[in-house]
Amino acid sequence: MLDVTTGIHVSRETWLSVLLRRVPVMALTDITRIEVDKAVEEYDRLGRDAFLQHYGFGRARRYMLLHGGRHYDSKAIFGAAHGFVPGQQPMAAQDFSGGAEHAVGYLRRLGFTVVEELTESVVIRDDLVDRVAHLKVNRSSGRPALFQPIVLLWAIGRARRGEPRLLSWKETEEELKTLLQRHGMRGERPRPDYPVAALCRAGLWVLPDYQGAVPAAHGDTELRSWFRDKQPLGGLAEPVYDLLRRSGETRLAVIGELLCRFFDDLDYGPLLTDVGLYDDDVASDETPGEAEAPEERPEPWLITAVEYERLCRIAKHGEAANHGKRASRTARNPIRSSAARRAVLGRSQGHCENPHCTGQPADVTDKGHPILEVDHVVDLTLGGRDHPSQMVALCPNCHAVKTRGRTREALRDILLKVAVERHNALRTAHGPSAA
């Protein structure tokens, strides 16, 4: 139900409890900075986990109240603050929305700063891809500006190579100016302050030495002056950097989302080459060191139907209508190839896809992956595609037979049917969009 006086959604149970206590819902409008400050003081006294447990809230995954140089779970603070209004009780998590139109909006109207951040120590891949998919970019030219995509691709390349997450503003500005000048294919000016400010607002970028809201990513002199005066140290949020560093599938998913959304009609090869992301190993996971956390899944090469669909979409992106001809963007595209290889290995469930395989090696690679080789059933030079529907995972023996065995032509016919059947089976499990 909607409280028309505040614009905040409350549950039916909350309304009933209010009526039973004969406390007017108008008390929501009585929350002031005083009640919020009291909730913040209690948060500091109890600590984050105890405070959230006491009031029945989970950790915020998006919006954080920035107050006194510290971050607080905005929805939990708002719910607790309601309990400090005389005659009122704290609001439970299910009683109202914590989004920008409700608790966050109310806190901002009271003069508080609420920021969007990925604050968890572990970021979920789909959450990160979703944030990238919903970046707010300038469209004054009629097409999405490339400021933010170029900065993100540069940062992903740095994460992949294990380079320092944070850089001085001078270093950041120098590197990004060059990239924007060279690859701003829609007339983007070499102004790194625009995309960095926008990515801070999106919760993907941090300036850890500066405690406060970053100016909005528009205007001209004011934004440029702010970065010149503050000279902030900055880079990807730590959990985002860590995930992009170790997870090849996440890296490829984010790159694919950026390419599909922003570079649909552009030659992105030179840009990806400059940032170190245009090769067949872009989807490879980092080999974990002794001190690093293990993968979430004991068999990380396995994928879900949703992940398979995403990889197929990347593999299909940018294919020309005459895909069988030897055009450079069609026959040799490391991003498509890497996505397709990743999809096929996951689809194989760790087993050779030749139905007549006589024995796959029991050993595994240094990364714990099965010893399998991904192969094009139809060679690219003969009109084949970098697409899972025409590719299979084979053990070394079956790969040798398929390549140079006397029965290779018959085996290729079998393997092509297997590739199509397995591809269609996963498409059916997710939906028809993974063509």
Automatic annotation (TrEMBL):
Pfam family of the protein (one): ScoMcrA_N
InterPro entries: DNA-SBD_ScoMcrA, HNH, HNH_nuc, ScoMcrA_N
Domain of life: Bacteria
CDD domains the UniProt entry points to: HNHc (cd00085)
Annotated ranges, domain HNH nuclease: 339-400
Entry GO MF terms: endonuclease activity
Keywords: Endonuclease, Hydrolase, Nuclease
Entry coiled-coil feature ranges: none
This protein's name: HNH endonuclease signature motif containing protein
Protein species of origin: Streptomyces bluensis
